[in-house]
Structures
1.
Amino acid sequence: MTQGNSTRCSEAISEMPCGQVDAGTTGRRSSGTRSRVPFVVGILLLCAAQPLLLRADDPPRAWHFSAEQLKPFWQSTTMYGETVLFVKHGSDELPRAPLLFPPTRILSVRSASGEVTYEEGRDYTWEAGSRELVLPAGSRVVCKAPADLRRQPGSQPFALTHRDGQGEILFGGGHEYHDMQTMVTYTYDAIWPVAAPTLAREQLARTLARLQEKKTLKIALLGDSISTGCNASGWARVPPYQPPYQDLLVQNLQAAYGARVTLDNFAVGGTDTTWGLANIGKVIDAAPDLVILAFGMNDSAGRSAEEYQANIRSMMDAVRSARPDTDFILLATMLGNRDWIALQQELFPQYRDKLAALCGPGCALADMTSVWEELLRRKNDWDLTGNGVNHPNDFGHRIYAQVLSALLIAQ
């Protein structure tokens, strides 16, 4: 399992190299994964060393894998570690935060690190039938005011301008948002209303056959900084040290099938489909059985859906010309912060639909876009974000892994 990088990281609208850490691997190869993660900076990218927060020579911490936590939540009755950020909107209001579903029973409420367990009544209250948790006076749970999640114009390295023009969105390049969030584990019996991914028996038949026959499965991942693992707690080297989604997927596949699974990660922060097309040769050279293409966040600064699709198609054509038996998963990205003026939110579903049109035998869609759209109908951006604008937190990385796992593991 590749542990977190010693960098701050956010997405970029365009990329500009600013040096590189080891063109080879930046992590050790123990569970069959490795990461090639150069430092990249762009118009809105911050990838600066953070010696006060992260140390490259710190030993990796243990992560306790749980297949139950990676079971797709829409196929479960237990929600593990759903994150919330409690916000107090007025002096006379109590801080509150929404869950995805009305709990039938709350099993635990903990700090995002897992190190502090909170008590019902003393630290939070909940009414049966409600999706909201409320913090009473004297609660030990972290809560913030809306102003805490904004900054004055020009006060941050990059202008993360709020859509309402009132300052900037607070940027968290390491574990700032993680430290403000709270995890809730609960049971529920509600139904998820969005069409969810299911086992891709026909689309990924070759990949599933390799797994079922316990042959080594070689995966190559090409994408942006979400796929480098940014803002997972393992990447940030803080408790609970959860790996990013791609490592969770590898662990889940190995546990489910008993097969050896390797992952070559060619993702680089700040990149888009134009960069991906220029670098697809690295994927071809890795001779993978399965390729995951995970772009869209940076393209959403303005690239048309037609150009986005053409770039993805060209990447696939290049791989198939060299390795015609390669399978593909096209990953439709999560949504960025709705209040960030730099992103054109309407492009995300357009990208998803263009990816879906490319799917068929040998190619499946991992639709994070539809899942994230529904998450944001029920929750706030700050409940789910890893950096404030366009990275998932631990909960989001697990959902990424669940969406991918649903295509590859029968439930």
2.
Amino acid sequence: MALMTVNGADLFVEEFGAGEDVVIFTHALFFSGQMYARQIARLSGRYRCVTVDWRGMGRSGKPLGGYDVDNLCRDVIGVADALGIDRFHWVGMSVGGVAGIRLAAQMPERFRSLAIGGASAEAEPIEKVVKYESLLLQGFARDPESVVDGLLPILYGEPFRTDPARAESLARERALIVANDGPAVARASAPILRRVDIRHMLPHVACPTYIFCGALDGANPPEKSRTIAQGIQGCRLEVFDGIGHQPNVEAPDLLAERLLAHLGDAAA
């Protein structure tokens, strides 16, 4: 598929596979729906998989506004409605996980299950907001390569970054981040970094929920996922040893297996 105009933005949407059960994938900052390629290759044999690139990121349009998390949620619900999808499974990493929590709490009738990775339900500390905003607003305009140098240790665990056998994969990830539209990603990131605390929403998530994170996550350390798990009744939490913020790339087959198991359990 290609661009869909939804909620005042041109959103890039792709579909893979077929079937009654739909899985919507939402991605992390700096990336696109393509970050789930390895997982979708496994899941699309059983499920209709839909990826949505957030406004301002990936292959979607770059509007001047509308980047608060509530509006990002409206974007995805608009896509689901346009595609005739009533209920779905949600897989979201980082901000995709934050959006999933909000929607699952506010629109429980739409959710078959929820899987969230490397997310945080808490507001970001102001010192972290200032650090990242300075890095993104100024760095991408002046020297994107230096921005990436600062981001890699936050986004990827040391085993992935230092393993010669993973050098090609790391180079691909680096190129994806450098390719971001600097002003657009700065506009998109500011409201995400300044999002509100949503821990009060956690008890209202009622669907089967799988929470995963990397033990070496430098963006949202495991205690953030543990806080989420403590608030959602009956959820399952898994911490991947030796993995950073991006299990989809650092442990792609393991994540695919875990998602298949989670989706199967949710349908049982």
3.
Amino acid sequence: MPRSSPRVLLLSPELGAHAVTDILRPYGFRDCARADANLQALADDPLARQRLADLVEAVLDEAADSADPDQALDYLERFAKASSSKVALFSSLHDSPAMLHLLMTVFGSSPFLSQSLIRNPEYLYWAARPEVLDRCRSRRVLEKDLRATLGSLRSHARQLDALRRFKRRELLAIGIRDLLGKASVRETTAALSHLADVLIQQAYAVCREGLAQAYGYARTGFTVLGMGKLGGEELNFSSDVDLVYLCGSDAATTTGTKSGGKTSRLPRAEYFRRLAQDVTNALSAVTNEGYLFRVDLRLRPEGKAGAIVGSLKEYGRYYQGGRGQPWERLALIKARPVAGDKALGKSFLKVIRTFVYRKAQPKAILAEVMRIKRLIDQKMVAREESERNVKLGRGGIREVELAVQTLQAMFGAAMPVQERNTEKALGKLFRARLIGPGEHRFLLDGYWFLRNVEHKLQMVEEQQTHTLSADPVELHVCALRLGYKDAEEAQAEELFRRDYARHAERIHDIFVRVLAGEIRPRRTRPVGVRALM
């Protein structure tokens, strides 16, 4: 018996529940009554109903192809309600199947991105422009657009809110490109990192100008150092930003400002402390426009107990004077100046190089990595997440990162393997014959597979989650979001599980061999793929 056209849902709205279910169930809806209610709400006036009737089959086809058809239709109804004209929206979607595909893909995959569109419906037409959709926007383009956005704004509070709006819009574009497959995971992590660089630099500039108006300038540099994934230019959708603040010299005072015959100055140490605190607050404060980033400052010398900012001289004494810990050698591999005085940042990198890349001491590094991994494993076992946490679980992202950083710290003093970015570091380790082609391929493929999973998890609600759901229905939606499809031999979630297990096993095997000290410089031909299978 041929399937009834879904147009009848709109042109004969008095249909009974069984007839509605018969029409909507083939599109994958779990709650057909709710789906029908959404369609009726979309068509709440005669002209909108007629326009939607011409579009409804395409809408339902796109919903069916999305990760979550029920969610996709829910958000379409909310988006249409927020739009200035439903009739104009339906006409645009009818004339542009690509725009309809974009919209339903986002609505079926990411509540976070969907809510951004609902808050600013006009962003749809901006994000669908070829110059935005078809390629990742460069750092230079972002800087130019941000300058235009700030334009004539004079209030520092308004400037910071403009940064938050800018981030929300750009994050939407990055997420859409990722979901539509128009950007690789590599390109997505780079785009997120470039956006963070631009926003942190501008937030720093706003805060610096605010202090300068009150106390003048310090006449010496201040640098914001990015650590972790920010330093490696490989951010997630919901990453904290790990920062360390550095100043050139904290002696003397600022230049001062005059008002009413008096000159207001600050000791440089206090000026830099306030600047560091202001930057932290500007990045992490939540307003009606959202927030920029969660900030983590624990990687600075002495961690939470240390001063929020230190001078180049002080940090040099800390790292070169025997106070730096083995784990800090690993953390500093990714240090990168991201805002402020870049020359000062480069001086810092020179100061720490001999601390990070010491000759010998492989046993100390291996012992420290084993200690770190034991703590991680204990936490994962306690949470029952060892096989589900894509970052910290067995064969997860952290094992790739630790394997790479361990080899860099052990051999970086004598071999050309110094590099912040994980993918580039793997390439250098391979060219230095510290890993073979099989190890290189397995670590690289596994790393990007897991990073893609991580992105899709965090894109749902912009939460810093790394754990796969134990619920089969939610895991099925996650697999669909990743591009898996149900097949005759297995459902999408089972196909995903198989790939996940294969990558995790290969990563864990190599990580164990790194910790056992089995991976050393090769004088002969590197181990091939077959030897690892």
4.
Amino acid sequence: MADGVVERSRPRDRILETAQDMFHKHGIKGVGVDAITEAAGTNKMTLYRHFESKDDLIIECLRATAAKASRIWDEFEARHPGDKLAQLHD
């Protein structure tokens, strides 16, 4: 943040984060690209510049979710190396 101006995230990141949230709340079939772009404060042209299709956006959302889950498990492993039971109860 510089001079009281809030830095806005990049359009691709906003679209991806918005889509993840909306897919989680409403299901993949319950959300269209119009709703995603409106909620992300962008337009369809920008969405399609970053993602070839809604399917590609879904794939990127799934990849991001899998990467986040992997990081979480890695943190559990680091806190309790070799102790699977402790990792589950963390």
